[in-house]
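Weekly sync, protein design subgroup
Attendees: M.S., D.O., the rotation student, P.L. (late)

Item 1: inverse folding check
M.S. brought a backbone from last month's batch and wanted to see whether the design step gives back something sensible before we order anything. D.O. pointed out we never logged the input encoding, so this time it goes straight into the notes. Structure tokens as presented (284 positions):
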């Protein structure tokens, strides 16, 4: 009898846990289907592809080192939808800078997320695998310059194995602090042409190009997987921007060779505007 009662209780507890886990996707879907009222708190998290360095004007009062633009996609979305934006993005941010580590005199970005937050967007993970740093270093090297950064391919390869779980941890942290928030993962723009040759202003050897193309594919896959596993909304900028790469006739992204004050291999104003439209489309 005692054993039977114990087994019965185990079945009941197991069923309850299973039911709770099964509810999580449904709850995420319910949040996804609920319009976000004007005036709601919106928090933007992420690295430079969310911050918008080099796109004037700079966000008033923001830390200069973070390079936040008043025309980054978060500001555009907030303006169009009438949301109350807290922009915590910062150029160079890693997932650690979102979760645990201060940057540019700012606390970890996650601290901006509070229980009353109703929308969180994030573009994060690229700096965990030196995506932009490696692109810049290789283009510097392949331009014949001498004062260039180095690229640790082994460290990047190792980082790609864990970056998906790091992005998932950011989603988890957001949900823990703001259970009612809609969580939107905005992946990175496609920078280089996915096939064929490069163009003037984008110097890179064939070997370095092959490495960077593979890095992009793996980072995109990790981001997609993290969003899917955590039932977050994915804004697939990577695919949408393939035909708007740095060598295209309608680029959303800057080349390596740019005028002073412009950030190499970073979003143009047209790119930020396009991303904002995509985010708004996923929220409607």
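Designed sequence read out in the meeting:
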């Amino acid at each position: 009898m005692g054993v039977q009662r114990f087994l019965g209780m185990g079945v009941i507890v197991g069923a309850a846990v299973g039911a709770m886990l099964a509810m999580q996707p449904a709850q995420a879907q319910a949040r996804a289907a609920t319009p976000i009222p004007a005036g709601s708190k919106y928090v933007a998290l992420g690295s430079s592809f969310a911050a918008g360095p080099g796109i004037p004007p700079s966000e008033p009062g923001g830390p200069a080192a973070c390079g936040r633009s008043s025309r980054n996609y978060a500001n555009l979305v907030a303006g169009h939808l009438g949301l109350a934006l807290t922009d915590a993005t910062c150029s160079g941010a890693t997932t650690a800078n979102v979760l645990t580590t201060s940057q540019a005199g700012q606390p970890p970005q996650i601290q901006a997320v509070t229980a009353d937050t109703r929308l969180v967007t994030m573009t994060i993970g690229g700096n965990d695998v030196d995506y932009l740093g490696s692109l810049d270093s290789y283009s510097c090297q392949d331009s014949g310059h001498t004062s260039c950064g180095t690229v640790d391919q082994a460290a990047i390869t190792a980082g790609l194995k864990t970056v998906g779980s790091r992005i998932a941890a950011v989603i988890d942290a957001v949900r823990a602090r703001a259970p009612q928030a809609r969580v939107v993962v905005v992946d990175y723009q496609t920078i280089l042409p996915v096939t064929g040759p490069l163009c003037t202003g984008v110097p890179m050897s064939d070997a370095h190009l092959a490495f960077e193309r593979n890095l992009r594919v793996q980072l995109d896959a990790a981001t997609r997987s993290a969003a899917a596993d955590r039932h977050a909304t994915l804004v697939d900028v990577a695919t949408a921007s393939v035909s708007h790469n740095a060598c295209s006739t309608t680029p959303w992204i800057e080349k390596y060779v740019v005028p002073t004050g412009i950030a190499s291999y970073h979003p143009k104003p047209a790119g930020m505007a396009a991303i904002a439209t995509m985010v708004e489309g996923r929220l409607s």
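Discussion: The radius of gyration is 21 Å. The chain has ten helices and five strands.
Action: P.L. to compare against the previous round before Friday.
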